[in-house]
Specification:
Strand order of the largest sheet: 11-10-9-8-12-6-13-16-15
Radius of gyration: 23 Å
Shape: elongated
Strand content: 15-25%
C-alpha cells in the first residue's frame, strides 16, 4: 500500500469514531512495518479513553509485532499535551517508530505544531501526508470550535419540491420517506448537540435523540426557549441524557420545575427579550460542542440565517407539492436578488425516494 492508501485506511478508521469520541476529534491511525505490512490499526475512543495512536500500538503489541522503525499514518497531528490522557507523541517516541505521516496539523492551541516538533526533536521523521482536506472535513466541527470559538452549525430540513416544510396548519409528519429519516439520524449522530426552538417543542413534542441508527453517545439536546415555555412533561425531558435550555427572560418558578425534570437552564439574553444566538453558540463551544445540528421551525431558522450563523444546510427534498405552507426559513423580505444568500452545493444524492442536498454559503 502506498502512502495515500494507508491514509485512506486511517480515515476509514477515523469515521468509526463518529458518535463516539466527542468532544475529541475523530482520528484514525495505521502502523506499517518496514516491509509494508500493516501491523496496527486504531481510532479514537470515548473521551478519556485511548487515542488512535495508542490503540494502533496496542493492536500491534497484541499480535506480537515490533513497531521499532515502523511508519505511522495518522489523520491528525499527534497530541502533545496532558489532557485526560498522556500525549500521543510521547507514546510514539517510546515505541521507537521511525516516521510519522500526518494528514493535517491539529488546530488545538495546546498542540498546533508542538506534537510534530516533539517527534522531530526525538529523531522521528515527520511528513505532511495526503488527504489533509478530507481529514479536516471529517472534523469540521472540531476545527470550527478551535479556530472560530463556535460549533459548526448545520441546519437540517425536510421540504417538498415547492420548498414547504409543513402545511399551513403546521402538520409536517412525514414529508420525506423512511430512508431520509434514517439518514437524518445518521447526521444527528455526527453532532455533539441537536437544537430546536420552543415552538417546535410545543407543536411537535419531539424527542431529538438518535434512535434510527446505532450510536455510542446521545447528543446534548438544546432548546432555544426565551421565556421557559417548555412544559415539564415534554418528551424531550423524558429521554436519557442532558437537556439544556437557553432563556432570555428569567422565571424562577418555571426554571425550578424544569430543573426538577433534569434540565439545565442557561441565560443568554439578547435584544427584544430573545436569546442571543451568537452568545449561545460561543457558550456551546465552551461546553465542547463541535457540530450543532439544528432542526427547528421557520422562525428560528430565519433568525439563524438572518444573523449569518448557518455554516451548512442539510435539506431533504421530497417529490411532492404542498402548495401553501411554512417555508424553510422566515427572513427578509429582500429588496433585490443581489441580497439573496448565495450557496454552493457540496453534494446532491438520492436517499430512497427523496433527494439529499448539502449546501454551504458561498464565501
Amino acid at each position: 500500500m502506498n502512502s495515500e492508501d494507508l491514509m485512506r485506511d486511517a480515515l476509514a478508521l477515523a469515521e468509526q469514531a463518529i458518535g463516539l469520541s466527542e468532544p475529541n476529534p475523530r482520528v484514525g491511525c495505521v502502523i506499517s512495518a518496514a516491509d509494508g505490512r500493516v501491523i496496527g490499526r486504531g481510532h479514537t475512543q470515548q473521551a478519556g479513553g485511548p487515542h488512535a495512536e495508542v490503540m494502533a500500538l496496542r493492536e500491534a503489541a497484541e499480535h506480537g509485532e515490533d513497531v521499532r522503525g515502523a511508519t505511522v499514518h495518522v489523520t491528525l497531528e499527534p497530541c502533545a499535551h496532558h489532557g485526560r490522557t498522556p500525549p500521543c507523541c510521547d507514546a510514539l517516541v517510546a515505541a521507537g517508530v521511525a516516521r510519522v505521516v500526518m494528514a493535517v496539523e491539529d488546530p488545538n492551541p495546546l498542540v498546533a505544531g508542538q506534537g510534530a516538533a516533539r517527534l522531530r526533536a526525538a529523531g522521528i521523521e515527520v511528513i505532511d501526508g495526503p488527504l489533509g482536506d478530507a481529514s479536516r472535513e471529517l472534523n469540521i466541527g472540531f476545527f470550527s470550535r478551535m479556530e472560530r470559538g463556535r460549533p459548526w452549525l448545520r441546519m437540517k430540513a425536510a421540504v417538498s419540491l415547492d420548498g414547504r416544510t409543513a402545511l399551513a396548519n403546521g402538520v409536517s409528519q412525514w414529508i420525506t420517506g423512511e430512508a431520509a429519516r434514517a439518514d437524518g439520524h445518521a447526521w444527528r449522530k455526527r453532532a455533539g448537540a441537536v437544537l430546536t426552538g420552543v415552538g417546535t417543542v410545543l407543536d411537535d413534542n419531539p424527542r431529538l435523540d438518535v434512535r434510527l441508527v446505532a450510536t455510542a453517545l446521545q447528543p446534548l439536546r438544546v432548546v432555544v426557549d426565551s421565556r421557559l415555555d417548555t412544559p415539564p412533561q415534554a418528551r424531550i425531558l423524558e429521554q436519557p441524557g442532558h437537556v439544556l435550555l437557553y432563556a432570555a427572560q428569567p422565571d424562577e418558578a418555571r426554571a425550578a420545575a424544569l430543573r426538577q425534570r433534569g434540565a439545565e437552564i442557561a441565560m443568554a439574553p439578547g435584544p427584544r427579550g430573545k436569546v442571543d444566538l451568537a452568545a449561545m453558540l460561543s457558550d456551546l463551544a465552551t461546553r465542547g460542542i463541535n457540530e450543532l445540528h439544528v432542526e427547528a421551525g421557520h422562525k428560528l431558522n430565519g433568525s439563524f440565517v438572518r444573523e449569518a450563523l448557518v455554516d451548512e444546510f442539510l435539506v431533504y427534498v421530497a417529490p411532492k407539492l404542498l402548495g401553501q405552507g411554512r417555508e424553510l426559513a422566515a427572513f427578509g423580505p429582500l429588496e433585490s436578488l443581489d441580497e439573496a444568500l448565495a450557496l454552493h452545493f457540496v453534494s446532491v444524492a438520492p436517499v430512497g425516494s427523496d433527494l439529499r442536498i448539502v449546501a454551504r454559503p458561498t464565501p
